[in-house]
């Protein structure tokens, strides 16, 4: 897999009897199919937990939601420590997929259902983070991903 703009990590990989390569997802506590998007997800969640101080217990991968009557899945969601309300939604793309307005429209649609405070989009090479201000209905793009202590 392609090197990413994220710290390296030790990964648990294995092949199924049918030859499918899988990666262990510590948040889901199971092996999942290794795709370019999953490669980004594992590196990014490791970065958040081990380098930015995000509590693993508040992060979840592949969170099911309903958007306009259709079931969708958020790639990752960070929850508030109290109340269980979504604090951040994270959308991953493969490194070959550019971060475009269409990608942001996808995460904004998810946020319509969840009303999170922060949105992050990453393809492993480029990371974009924004804070949503619901009082002014505006989006502030941040220069960096904030550490958990700054949320």
Question: In words, what does this structure look like?
Answer:
This protein has helices at 36-51, 101-114; strands at residues 13-15, 21-25, 30-33, 59-67, 70-79, 86-92, 118-122, 127-133, 138-142. It is α+β, with helices and mostly antiparallel strands and 151 residues long. The chain has a single domain (35-150), classed as tt1808, chain A, CATH 3.90.1570.30. A hairpin with a 6-residue loop joins strand 5 and strand 6 (86-92). It is globular. The termini are far apart. The relative contact order is 0.15. The mean pLDDT is 92.
- What gap, in angstroms, lies between the N and C termini? 32 Å
Helix content: 10-25%
- Alpha-beta classification: alpha+beta
> What would CATH call the class?
Alpha Beta
Main-sheet strand order equals 4-5-6-7-8-9
Largest sheet: 6 strands, mixed
- The proportion of residues in beta strands is 35-45%
For the record, the count of structural domains works out to 1
Here the CATH topology equals tt1808, chain A
Number of strands: 9
Query: How many distinct helices?
Result: 2
Q: What Rg is obtained from the alpha carbons, in whole angstroms?
A: 15 Å
Any idea what the shape is? globular
**What average pLDDT do the residues reach?**
92
CATH architecture: Alpha-Beta Complex
Helix-strand pattern: EEEHEEEHEEE
Flag low-confidence runs: none
